[in-house]
Task: structure prediction
Amino acid sequence: MQYLMQCLNPKKQCSTWTSRPNKVPVACPGCRSRKVKVVATIEGKKYHCERCSNDWDAYKGKKPKVCPRCHSPYWDTPRREKREDAKVTN
Result:
């Protein structure tokens, strides 16, 4: 979850900004004023790893390349089941 923040410093006219995922900022990044308020919350897209069953929120709205927990690039494809009819012959 991200937050849309607004600076309330009367001396400067800072714009609104979005926070890092799952963190509420305590100061404006432009003027470092602690007079900030949450304007809205932004629900990010949830992802699920088919390999390690990890759930996480999207970062910057991009589809992730790897799972942040197991680092598998195949996080969105389920594992294939082993074939029983395949036998090793020497």
Observations:
- The beta strands are 2-7, 17-18, 36-42, 46-48, 55-57.
- The CA atoms of residues 47 and 63 lie 9 Å apart.
- The first strand starts at residue 2 and ends at 7.
